[in-house]
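Q: Phospho-N-acetylmuramoyl-pentapeptide-transferase, please. Structure only.
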Amino acid sequence: MFHYLVAFADAISALNVFRYITFRTGGAIMTALLFVFLFGPKIISSLRLRQGHGQPIRADGPEAHLAKKGTPTMGGLMILSGALVAALLWCDLTNPYVWIVIGVTVGFGAIGFYDDYLKVTKSSHKGFSGKSRLGLEFLIAASAAFVVTLLDNEPFSTSIAFPFLKDLTLNLGIFFIPFAAFVVVGAGNAVNLTDGLDGLAIVPVMIACAAFALIAYLSGNAVFANYLQIHHVAGTGELAVIAGAVIGAGLGFLWFNAPPAAIFMGDTGSLALGGMIGAIAVATKHEIVLAIIGGLFVLEAVSVIVQVASFKLTGKRVFRMAPIHHHFELMGWTESQVVIRFWIIAVVLALVGLATLKLR
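A: Structure for Phospho-N-acetylmuramoyl-pentapeptide-transferase:
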């Protein structure tokens, strides 16, 4: 919305600052942060009043988690509301990539909200039917991927780029849509699996957002993209503003989610934020880099897949408990040790992912 003030820049030169993505990204960070700080306590009080017993705690989980009983969930509403308000205020709303990413974020957030709602009302950790949930996620992601293919020229619009190799792309043709949908859905569910300890998911999400804010800005700028020898995708620079909005909202949420958490993110937030990161990766043609930057989320998801496959095939478990953060808890790590060490891993992986921008 503020971007429209550029139209008056000829009369008031100071309004030229609204042209710059970097300025508007900073504005989005501060707006989202302030929004969550101001309205967060009211949202928490409202959710606690309506949910009663709060998020159900798994009976087969670590015993230390039983003390968290009664903590309200759906904290993703705080993050999404703050991020969306900031994005709508600071983004160039004529940019189609903005609406694609917002659409995925809101769509996945709605699915997560319904899942959280079922868990709270049924007092069970089992929510939305897995098949139905995945079906809706793939529908939203595939629709977004299809629109993305219309925004660029073929064959690049249906191709994937490889890190470290500046000229190598693989044109998937029509198969790009299911591939991109898999990336978005996989990212959403991987973040969802990571959200199991106080502060564990939100900080790696902010780290990934910071990395992709930079990638989006550089990919959307022809000069920087040419210098770094990465593929230029016109218009994606605006996605840095959305990523910044999530960083601001995430910082505000962390204030309330820090141990002992006053509220949990829930599927409302984790699905939406993961889907958003996946959508930005698809839009900027950095799907493979996402697997590096979001390597912590990949590790969490793979640990669950390995655990389930091993148990079904052999009757034995590879980990003491999955996702893998619970495995380390049962090994004797305190919750804060697991969380902080996983944050460190997320930072290292983000730096490795960003290194691919120059190592070509």
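A: Brief note, in case it's useful. The first strand starts at residue 159 and ends at 161.
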